[in-house]
Amino acid sequence: MKKLVTYYRLSKEELSKVIFPTKEQVRNAFISVILVVTVIALFLALADFILGSFVSSIL
Predict the structure, then answer these.
(1) What is the DSSP string of 3-43?
(2) S-S: 21 plus which of 8, 25, 32, 46, CB 3.0-4.6 Å?
(3) What are the alphabetically sorted keywords of the record (predicted)?
(4) Domain ranges of the chain
(5) pTM
(6) How far apart are CA 11 and CA 35, in angstroms?
(7) How far apart are CA 33 and CA 41, in angstroms?
(8) SS3 of 59, please?
(9) Residue 59 — very low, low, confident or very high, per pLDDT cuts 50/70/90?
(10) What are phi and psi of 17, to 5 degrees?
């Protein structure tokens, strides 16, 4: 039982050291991720279209 109490106390102490992001930081990170994913998806779609057209013209 003593180990459990010690574990709980240490966990609570470590959790008090955590710095959680603000709403603005979360929103900015979300927008950045969506933007990067969209750009990469568009690039891959363009590359697929170009390479597909190239292979189709060869065959």
Answers:
(1) HHHHHHHHHHHHHTT--PPPHHHHHHHHHHHHHHHHHHHHH
(2) 25
(3) Cell membrane, Membrane, Protein transport, Translocation, Transmembrane, Transmembrane helix, Transport
(4) 21-59
(5) 0.66
(6) 37
(7) 12
(8) coil
(9) confident
(10) -85, -15
